[in-house]
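Bumping with the actual sequence this time:
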Amino acid sequence: MHIHKVIASAPLDRSGAIPLFRQLYTRLKDAILRGALAPGARLPATRELCSLLGVSRQTVLAAYEQLTAEGYLRGGVGQGTFVEPALNLARPDTPAPGLLRPLPERGAAMAAAMARTRFHDGPVRAFRPSMPGLDLFPFDLWRKIELRQLRRAGPHLGYSRPEGYAPLRELLCAYLRASRGVECTPEQIVITSGSQQALYLLGQLLLAPGDRVWVESPGYLGASAPLAVAGASLCTVPVTEEGMDVAYGAKHYPDARMVFATPSHQLPLGVTMSLSRRLELLRWASANRAWIIEDDYDSEYRYTGPPLASLQGLDRAGCVVYVGTLSKVLFPGLRLGYVVAPPALAEPLARAKAVVDRHNAIVPQAVLADFIGEGHFARHIRRTREAYGERREALLGALQDRLGERLRCGPSDAGLDVCVHFQPGRDGRLPEEARVDEAATRAGIELRPLSYYTHAIATPECAVTPGLVLGFSAVGPADIRQGVDKLAQVMEAEARRSGARS
């Protein structure tokens, strides 16, 4: 192709946001990289190219200068401008490469670990699970505190220690001791990018490939993923009305090195681990020198009494690692979580954290420290607990009125969600979760089928009655009641289809 045709193949976009010199630079660079302008090819003089393209000479000079600085062109005053002769370019017909080689086993495992995860997308609606009410958060107040922090420029805005902002760790320590019965010092707390990073770090730090780990099933798949990536062998343990079945785990997987548990509020079934089960789990872990990861993800929200004390507060052997998140009590976009590690584990965990991302962003940590220290955190928890209690009542009442014969509610005294189980229809059949899920999406409501939380490797003992997980915290009572109306229509339509099939 003639060099003038290569350069002037299409007019430059004079109405776009990209400067003309940048457009010309990009066009020339692409032509060089694909071989349309070969190494050593002479480019038109700047004045000639100005006339050809109808642009100023400064536009052409700026494009040539940028390409020369990056090594694509060579030239000088009175010498002309050439494509760098030493460039070693692929042939023009070389296909664009994919991966140079297949991912190694560890990389493939990491890429696939969260493949089943549904990420929140689009506007908030009923019944988005595990989502706090963003309409209740005082963003204006948060913004004022953030501006105050940014005005106070100083060393605290430079690089920080991997364990996190010291004032925040001190305040979290006081809060956890008072509200959750966690026994700790500030030195035991490591700030993380949400509980997800905490679980990833703990899996990498505490597990060797092949180590067995108990996981609840059905359970939180986001916890299983980082443990599997660490090379763990996941062992599913059933959940009963008293929580994780410790006796089952001890009998079937006696050599496990770790247990992942949600004692205060199990996701998705909503049960709370009984005191006898907690003590049984602690005795087993202590005797077998196994770690317990206690995920206390939404313990602030209990509607029939005060929040229950943590499992960590009962631990006397130093085997419980307490993981918390601020995504549920504040807002998920903050991406702040924390680990309360046994004293001997805190420093290794902080060093491992430094490998991943050096430290969390300091400004959000400093803002949160002020938010807690000035009393806003406690007020926000009280306000949201009251609001979520009202939203919970709206959901339970609407479900009873519209779907009392079709759905059976599980425990709902804590958390942000309710698990509901299908009741048999007149034909004795249970609705199909997948059909209800798809129809609900079409109707404009968002939920999770209970099977979403079931591990692919779950044993038959882990089976539960099919159903749904419905979040009640994300939207107000009116939206919840409208959502239940839509769900009732979906369930009625599914019942008619089931009858027609029979």
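The tokens above came from a reply further down the thread. The chain has three domains: 3-83, 107-122+137-374, 379-501.
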